[in-house]
Amino acid sequence: MHHLKAAIYIFLLISWFDVEFGSTASNSFTFPQFVKDPETLVSSNAIFQLGFFSPTNSTSRYLGIWFNNKLNSENSLEVFWVANRDSPVKDSSAVFKISDDGDLQVMDAEDKDSNIRIWQSFDNPTDSFLSGTKLTFNKSLHDTKTNIQSWKSNNDPSSGRFRIASLPRDLTEFFIVSDDKPYWRTGPWNGYRFIGIPFSDSEVSSGFNVDDHDGTVDFSFEPADKSFWERYVLTYDGILLGRIWNDNSSSWESARQSLYTECDVYSKCGKYAVCDSLKEPICECLRGFTPENVDEWRKGNWTDGCVRRTELQCNAPGSKQDKFLHMKQIKVPDYARWILASADDCQGNCIGDCSCLAYSYYTGVGCMLWNASLIDLQQYSEDGADLFIRLANSELPGESGKKKIITAVCVIFGALFVSIAAFFLWKRMAHKNGKRATPPPKETEWQNIFGAAGCSNDFQDLPLFEFTKLADATDNFSEMNKLGQGGFGPVYKGKWEDGQDIAVKRLSSVSGQGQQEFMNEVMVISKLQHKNLVRLLGCSVEGEEKLLVYELMPNKSLDALLFDPQQCKLLDWQKRFNIIKGICRGLLYLHRDSRLRIIHRDLKPSNILLDEELNPKISDFGLARIFGSKQDQANTLRVVGTYGYMSPEYAMEGQFSEKSDVFSLGVLLLEIVSGRRNQKLAQESLNLLTYAWKMWNENNMLSLIDPTILDQRSKVQLFKCIQVGLLCVQEFPEDRPDVPALISMLDVDDAKTLPIPKQPGFTQHRVRFKDEILLNCLEDCSVNYDSMTALSAR
């Protein structure tokens, strides 16, 4: 049987290769023919190549198979199978042969009379599988025989710590495990897709075939489009990366991957908690639960998860029956128990079983019940399953509770109606007597408001609105009209009597910085007019109420589209590039062309608003500072802003300048290209800057790019933007370009003329490299240099 497997694989190898050996074509691979290092076998169509290779910075020799890429050197080959991964040959004396009894062998041929066998047979794949591959998994945590296993590092093909496994579960699903602990999972298989991978009907699961029988799982995939090669590789840092071969560039291009956000990491938030990458913080206890370790939870360590706030009563005598919380668009928890039942019977089975903590019914999967802690829940914006979680009766008010609420609401609204009617009656009578209920602010009031702060009273051009009119325009600041919430206070959508849409920002009475931010924003933005800056229409200052009125941006903020798995598809690369250029033009106006010289200090996606044509407008000038014409830098003892977008010199030393905004812009640029927030990613807990720097140094920029915008036509422009983004986030301000230079870089056609970026600020790894690094052939995504990575404290 052992020899049969080897023979079968050799047959497949010959079918793949249609081999040429040296200059002589051959359609067979006969005994005892061998390949001696550095000879290689190349297929007649020049697609595949078999031979010995050495990874970067290594002298060890390995037998491998790779796609033949004549544009790259041996050190940049993308190897998808390695024979002797854990038994390297120390020099170039090895040979590959088929023994007389049919085994594949790698031999150390230094001693011609007594060859030393280094490796034999083909029991294990390595880190990759291609279209047409069939794999068989045993449902066991410790089954490592046939599992796909990562390299140990980017330059070491020996067995790494990540592997793909099918664990013992009622339902069929696959896991990436690390040191025998789950790291990522697909969710259950429903016959044509994995339901834990959102939006995968036509993408991730396309062509997958899964057959679960007798404790083993057969897996294979055959893409619908057989005109190109597709490959999945488990990277050394635990990401299952889908790649497609591009004949035009003779290179692999990233198409999709397993982990996009921190929420994709297995049980990121612990038990009884749900992870939502669109929220901050990303982890939240389920309703009816509270953090088990409150102090650690507040620090962002969610490992311990949550505990039940009110114990279940089930059918205890004299107690009220437990109820079920309905959650939508959820990645169902791990450890589902499957039973044969219809949707209605599924509900009944869980309700009647006091040990059942949750249930879900999904077409193709059937009835899923959970009797243990709920772990690895994730909230999706679309897709996902309906999940019903058992809670104590008091956590979900019943009909009697609803009636009490309705009664209370009726009483409150009745009293409110009488009060409003009395107010308008008084106002009408006051008007008849020549009085005004709330006199409008006048220029003297502007002077009183801003004069105390030592500010100019030149605000005659800024309209002042009555508070009551703004209340009417926003339906009395209805929650239905609420657009968002910031540190300053809530923002509401409104409509004037003439039909004009507005956005009203209302100072929060509990905001310690609101008063100062309000005055600062009025003073700054009332003097600015640019198509890439949000326009201030006016404000209101009456008593304790302070409001700012802006033009309404129908597409909300950049982060609302960019980081939403579905909405991001509205932003193709051309739209994103136009947004980048628009932000740059707005920043150039602030720094150089406006009446005032402004440092924004809080540039981030939520402060970039988008109009109906997706044109960007910089907003929120509450933290902005005015610079003198000859001033290059300022210091502050009060560091305010958003971590992740602050430059190192500002966050650590309170120094800010134009280059502080450039740093923030660089982070924004990398986020726009990658579609990821600058927060810790799944890969080794790297933030986006560290990950971008890592991919740059590994010549793997394709892995950084949002797959939804990646195509051959835009690749050069995307690589250029990554390079420009890295130039903007360099650690030292003097190394960063100013905005005029930045705009020129974005317009340049030949990216080879751009500077090579240095170490970014706030990366978690230091990467040092030789001074003679050259950017080589950007059109083919090749950055050639030697590098080494070492940890450095910051």
Structural features:
about 800 residues; alpha+beta; eight-stranded mixed beta sheet; six-stranded antiparallel beta sheet; 46 strands; about 20% helix; flat; disordered N terminus
Description:
The radius of gyration is 31 Å and the shape is flat. Residues 1-32, 200-204, 432-444, 450-458 and 764-794 have low confidence and may be disordered. Helices cover 22% and strands 26% of the residues. It is an alpha+beta fold and 794 residues long. It is built from 14 helices and 46 strands. The two termini are 56 Å apart.
CATH architecture of the largest domain: Orthogonal Bundle
Category by helix and strand content = alpha+beta
Radius of gyration from the alpha-carbon trace, in angstroms: 31 Å
Counted up, domains total: 6
CATH homologous superfamily (4th level) name of the largest domain: Transferase(Phosphotransferase) domain 1
Determine the fraction of residues in helical runs and give it as a percent range.
10-25%
Report the count of strand segments: 46
Low-confidence spans? 1-32, 200-204, 432-444, 450-458, 764-794
The helix count comes to 14
Strand content: 25-35%
Strand order of the largest sheet: 23-22-30-26-31-28-29-27
By CATH reckoning, the class of the largest domain would read Mainly Alpha
CATH topology of the largest domain: Transferase(Phosphotransferase), domain 1
Overall mean pLDDT: 76
Distance between termini? 56 Å
Globally, the shape reads flat
Largest sheet: 8 strands, mixed
